[in-house]
Each structure stands twice: as structure tokens, then as C-alpha cells.
Design brief:
Number of domains: 1
Mean pLDDT: 92
Low-confidence stretches: none
CATH class: Alpha Beta
Order of helices and strands: EEEEHEEEHEEHEHEH
CATH superfamily: Nucleoside phosphorylase domain
Structural class: alpha/beta
CATH architecture: 3-Layer(aba) Sandwich
CATH topology: Rossmann fold
Distance between the termini: 33 Å
């Protein structure tokens, strides 16, 4: 398998961003991952992995996060840009906004969230869970393109597939969370465990429960369609300036260096 250093994990509707794509599958110790699209963006080799499978058929609590991240690692990926829709808890954020999380709070319940269930016991540092070097490049690109972005946000990840209750959203707001989604965790943690740089580009699809009257998947889809050209432009221009070689100035590159009991 030819090594590909950059991957995009995305939802339905972003598959066409990778040009001249060829679909394949990768076998991992955690299951078979398909479809994976190998192609190019801005002359660089890219893998696109649809998080929810073909035709958005896998709900967030059933995504095989370990298999997905391990498959990218096996393919040689060192940088992941992940796309996701989120709901706004912070009332400063509005539907259609692009958000770049810098931290998360995990309220998932039953997901396999580590590669290290056995010895040696491994504790990775996630003080900065989203790669600060990649975040800087994405912010720089957004400013260059004139794209307005919320540059910092705490993302709370819930189990799904139901939307959150108004009471839960009030609690998350009091805890300092800005947006809510269902997919960032354990994806971001698993990437760190394999020393992969990971950044998440989110777009606000709705105000969270209790802030607006009701939520529907149709509404999320409508906002996604509206915002996707802007997100695609941001991705393409970011990948153009994204170095293939990592300089080691982020916490991701050597995440396992002092993480293990021996």
C-alpha cells in the first residue's frame, strides 16, 4: 500500500472533494474499513474516510472509531482533518458558523475509546487534544480567505443518536461547553494514541435543544448543504499549505514518549 500522509474524515456530502479517487478497503484488528477514497487535493495525496459509511448508514454511537483511525494509521496517515456538524450551546455562535474546537468534554457512554486495553498501561496527554500546529494553519487559511471562524470552542460529545435534552444543554452550558456533537470523541483521542495530528473543523447546523424550539435531521442536512462550499474551500486551501513533513512542535508527534508504565 502506498503511504498517504493526510486524511479527511467527513460526513455525507463531502466525498467529491477528493479528485481522481479510487475506492478501497483496509483490514484492521478492529474490523474492515470501507469505503476509503484515495485521491488528490491540491496535488497532494489524500484519503477520504466517510465516518458514517456509504450513504450515511452508520449512526454515531455505532461508528467503529478504532477501526477507522487504525486504518488511516496503517495507510501512513500523520495528519487528520475531521469534519462534523454541531449544535450551538454558546448563544454567540449561530447556524452556519464554522468552529474550530480547542478542547472537549466527553459525555459518551459505551464507546471503545482506547487502543491500550492491555499492558503496558498507557496514559496519553490530551491537555491540547486538537493539534495546535494544524489549528494555526487552519486559522491562517480562514483569515486569508476572509472566512469568519470561531477560533476557540469547547466541544461536548454525547452518545446519540438522539439529540440532547434542554436540561442537558443547560448543564453543558454551565460547564463551559460551547458546542455539542456526537462524533469527535473518541476519534480525537485515538488519533493522539497513534501519534497522529488531528484537527476538527465543525459547522453549526442548529442551536441546541432549549435554545430553539425543536431539532430535526432535515434541518442539519439543509445547513450542511449551504455551508459545504465554504468548508471545502477552507479544506483545499489548508491542504495546499500543510507541510507533509511534521516538525515535531506539537504534542501529537511524541505522544507516547512518556505515556507508558514499563
Amino acid at each position: 500500500m502506498e503511504k498517504t500522509r493526510i486524511a479527511i474524515i467527513g460526513g455525507t456530502g463531502f466525498e467529491q472533494i477528493v479528485k481522481n479517487a479510487e475506492q478501497t478497503q483496509i483490514k484492521t484488528p478492529y474490523g474492515l474499513v470501507k469505503p476509503l477514497s484515495f485521491g488528490e487535493i491540491a496535488g497532494k495525496k489524500i484519503i477520504f474516510l466517510p465516518r458514517h459509511g456509504a450513504g450515511h448508514s452508520i449512526p454515531p454511537h455505532k461508528v467503529n472509531y478504532r477501526a477507522n483511525v487504525y486504518a488511516l494509521h496503517k495507510a501512513g496517515v500523520e495528519r487528520i482533518i475531521a469534519l462534523s456538524a454541531v449544535g450551538a450551546i454558546n448563544r454567540v455562535f449561530k447556524p452556519g458558523d464554522i468552529v474550530l474546537p480547542h478542547d472537549f468534554a466527553d459525555f459518551t457512554k459505551m464507546r471503545a475509546e482506547t487502543f491500550y486495553d492491555d499492558a503496558p498501561v498507557t496514559h496519553v496527554d490530551v491537555s491540547e487534544p486538537y493539534c495546535p500546529e494544524m489549528r494555526k494553519l487552519i486559522i491562517k487559511t480562514a483569515k486569508k480567505l476572509g472566512i469568519s471562524m470561531q477560533e476557540n470552542a469547547v466541544l461536548v460529545c454525547t452518545e446519540g443518536p438522539r439529540f440532547e435534552t434542554a436540561a442537558e444543554i443547560r448543564i453543558f452550558g454551565r460547564l463551559g461547553c460551547d458546542v455539542v456533537g456526537m462524533t469527535s470523541v473518541p476519534e480525537v483521542v485515538l488519533a493522539r494514541e497513534l501519534e497522529i495530528c488531528y484537527a476538527s473543523v465543525c459547522f453549526v447546523s442548529n442551536m441546541a435543544a432549549g435554545i430553539q424550539e425543536r431539532l430535526t435531521p432535515h434541518e442539519v442536512s439543509k445547513i450542511s448543504e449551504k455551508i459545504s462550499p465554504k468548508v471545502e474551500q477552507l479544506l483545499i486551501e489548508t491542504i495546499k499549505i500543510l507541510p507533509l513533513e511534521r516538525e515535531g512542535n506539537c504534542p501529537c508527534v511524541n505522544a507516547l514518549k512518556d505515556a507508558r508504565f514499563k
